[in-house]
Design goal:
151 residues, mainly beta, four-stranded antiparallel sheet, three-stranded antiparallel sheet, globular
Length: 151
Amino acid sequence: MVTGHANNSVAGDVLLSHGYSDVWVIKIDGSGNKLWGKEFGGDGDDEATSILATSDTTYLIAGYTRSSSNTGDVGLNNGNADLWVLEMSSTGNLLWQRPMGGSLDEGSYAATIVPAKGGGYVVAANASSTNGDLLNYINRGADDYWILQLK
């Protein structure tokens, strides 16, 4: 699997556009041939920067969403850009998604997801807010690192 984004296009390999830019996941075979592609997003700019195969044949995707709340595949957006974590089945079906952040900018600089020692997953992203999901967070500058553990 590879991931990235597709810009407001429904042509060639891109079959659906929710808005300005969508998370785009492509499944390829061992020879690099495309088997299928899937787009996830809302009415704004949505991009993925990391994908991880889990032990139970699903995939976790980390990136960001700038889409309005409850448009397309996006749930409650807290503000400007939210860190966006999605879980997808091995056949491309969205299992769950969650935007996380505050009123400013989270997740827009190369959000990464990796397995955590002892189980679960760790997500690393940038964070600017001190409200919403970062209510008790102390921002030390324009953008700080934000490290989360997901179970």
